[in-house]
Design goal:
alpha+beta, 4-stranded antiparallel β-sheet, 3-stranded antiparallel β-sheet
Amino acid sequence: MDVVYEICGDECYYVEGFKRYRKTKPLRHVFLLIKLLGLTLFSFLIWVLISEKVFSFAAIIFAMCLIIVFSYKIDHLVIKRNVRNSPYGNEDAVLTFSEHGLYSKSDKAEVKLGWDVFTKAIRVKDGFLLFQGPKHYNWLPDNKLTNHAQLDQIRELFEKNV
């Protein structure tokens, strides 16, 4: 039996998928610690520059701090812009998984992919990330399943074929 997802590829869908992808990265806590140390160092540097009355360099360092603090939000804005500029943005798609692989159909595209294309499937709290290589993934939220009783079936398909 086929497992069907009905997905609307709007900006929120891609941002939420990216958030889940980012959480799968094992070194994310290390990078967060590096950011925190960098902010501490930059804060000290800003304090020194202001005390020496070098306001222009202090402003530049402060701008760098803002970029570090809001880097996740900047990523989300870039994703949203890319979706708005994409011809496939805000497009509804039906993804059907079967023993043969994935069949995806939308108004602008029709794609068939065999299971050998997929390299990894990761279960996250509210869906799956289905990878095609190290960085290309498809976000499959549980709430987009047409039949929620098929959650075990899609899990079995991924375990068997990926």
